[in-house]
Target: Extracellular xylan exo-alpha-(1->2)-glucuronosidase
Amino acid sequence: MCKLRNIWLSVFLLGYTVTLFAEDGSRLWLRAETNVNAEVKANKKSPTIDIAIEELHTQWKGAPVQLNIVPAKKMPALGNDGYAITGNTLTGISISAPMEQGLLYGAYHLLRLQAAGNLSSAIDITESPSYAVRIINHWDHINGPVTRGYAGHSIWKWNELPDTISPRYKEYARANASIGINGISLVSVPPQMFNADFFKKLKAIADIFRPYHIKVYLGIGFSSPMAVGDLKTADPLNKDVRKWWRNKMNELYSFIPDFGGFVIKANSEGASGPQDFGRTHLDGANMIADAIAPHNGIIMWRAFVYHPTEVDRAKQAYQEFMPFDGQFRSNVIIQVKNGPIDFQPREPFSPLFGAMQKTPVMIEFQITQEYLGFSNHLAYLGTTYEECLKSDTYARGANSTVGKATDGTLFNYKLTAIAGIGNVGEDINWCGHHFAQANWYVFGRMAWNNKLTAEDVAREWLQQTFTNKEFVEPVLNIMLRSREAIVDYMMPLGLHHLFAWDHHYGPEPWCDVPGARHDWLPSYYHKADKIGLGFNRSVSGSNAVEQYFQPLRDEYNNIEQCDERYLLWFHHVSWIYKMKSGRTLWDELCYHYDQGVKEVRDFQKIWDAMEPYVDTERFAHIQSKLRIQAHDAVWWKDACLLYFQTFSQKPIPYDIERPIHNLDDLMKIKLDLLPHN
Model:
C-alpha cells in the first residue's frame, strides 16, 4: 500500500510540475525570473514607488538602482510621466523623475531592456510620452459578453464585485503599466446601473489600478437622465438635465476622486445623442464636460457617426465635426478612428486628422481583430499603426504627420490622448491567439512613443515573449508581412467592407439583406459592375478627396497618381485599366488574392521550422491557428474572385491557383456567429 501510495504521489507531483510549468501564455511579455535579490533604494515612499522597487528587487540582475523623485523645475521636459535612466550596469543605475509614475515607467523600461537582451553597460536614457492619456477602451457588456471580443467573456466580474476581487485585475494593471498605458475604459454601463451600487464595484477596481497610475473611465449612454433620473428628456440645454449630470458627477467622484472621465458614442448606430433632441454634438459634449470639469475629468467624444443618407459615409464625420472646431470645452477631445470608415484591413487616414486644429483630436486604433480574422488569424497591427501615425496630412506643409497632428506638436493641444479597442478576455492567454498579445503590446509602446517602428517593437516583444534567439528573426519576418498578407487575400487595392453580415468573419461581397441600410452592405462600397470596380470618391463622384489637404487631394483625385493601395477606395476603375505593373486591374486583383494565399502558406512553413525553438504548447496552438488562416485565405480568394468574375467576365490568369470552391456553394455559407463572443 505504501509503495502504491508513493507511485500515486509521484504521478501527482509530476502532473503538478507539468501544470506549473506548462506554457499557456498567461505571463504575456513579463517572463523574467523573480528570484533575484537586487539592491534598490528610493528617496521617497509611496505605493507606486513600492511597486517599482519590488519589480526591480525581484528581477533586476545588474548593479544597485537608486530611484529619485526630483523637483520638476530640474527636469521640465519630462512632464508628469517622464523619466531619466543614467549610470552603468556594473557600478550603479539611477532612475529619476518628477513624479512617482515616472519611476515606475523607468523601472519597467530598464527591465524591458534586460529581458530583450538590449542592455549596454553605459545607460543614458530620457523619455516622456507622446500622449498624456494612453487608454484602452473595453467594449465589454456588464453581463459578460464582449462586443468584437474573441478571447472569451469579459474579465470584469461585476456580479462578484466588490466583495470578490479577481487576481487578474492586478495582473492586467501590471501588464498595462509595463507598456505605459494609464487609462482603462472598463465597460459601457447601462443607464439603470449608473448608481451608487455600481460605483462601489467600480471603486474596487480603481483602488487596484491606482498604484499603477491607471485611471478608470466608463462608456455611458447619453440618455441616462431619462433612464435613471425620472426626466422626460436628455436635452443638453435643459436646466434639469444639466443639474442631473452635475449631481451624478458629484456622486461618482465621492467614490472615486481620480475617476478619469467618459468615452461617449452618441447618435451612431442607434445610440442616443443630442441630435435626438434637436441639438448638436457640440451641445452634448460641452454639457457633460461642464459637469465633470470641477473634478478634472475629460470627455472623449467619438466621431464614429454616419447616417443612411445619400452622403458618402466616408465624408460624414468630417462634415459633422469640422463646423464646431474650436468651440468644444477644453476638457473635450474628439476620438477619431484611424480611417474614415471602420477599422478596415487598410484605409487611408481620416481627414479629420490635421483638419481640426483648434480642438484636440485623438486616434482610435482597434487592437481587437474585428475585421482581421478574429483571434484565428495572425495579424500584427504594428504596421497598421505605424502606417497611420507616419502618414502626412500636409496640414501645415510636408511632414505634418498624423502623429504630429494628434500629439500636440503641430497645434499645441493642451489635452492629448490615444485610444485602442482592447482584445483581452477570460482566455488563459488573454487574447485568444498568442500573437494577438503583440497588438496589445505594440499599441501601448506606440502610444508612449509614436515614433517607434513596428519592426523594432515586434522584435522587442518577441525577445521578451519567446526567449530563443534563433526564433526571433524568422518569426519577426512573419509578423511584419502578416497584415499585408491579410489585405491581399481579403481586400487589396483599396477594396473595403466585403465582410459577412453582422459578425464580419469571412467574405460576403454579394451580401443583400432585405430592408438593411445600404451603407451596411458590401455593394455600397465595392460598386462592382460590368465596367469596373471601386467607389468613386474623386471630384466626379462623392468628392471625398476634397477633405484632404493638398497635394494629397490632387493625388487621390487623379487615377494615374493615386497610391494603388487606395485605388479602389477613391476610384471606380475599369476592369481593363492598366496598372503600374502593366497588368489589367482584373489580373492585378487576381494576383493580389493569390499572393495573400501564398504568404500564409509560407508562414506555415516558417512556423513549422521553429518547432525546436519554442515550447510545445504555444507551437501547437499557433500551428493550428495558421491552418485555419490558410483555409480562410483560400475561402476569401475564391469567394471574391469568383463573385467579381461575374461582373468582369474575364478568366482568372492561368498561372494562378485554380479556385477549389463553387460560387453557389460559397454563397450558401452562413456562420452562426454573433458580433460579440
About this structure: Residues 134 and 382 are 16 Å apart (CA to CA). DSSP finds 20 helices and 15 strands in the chain.
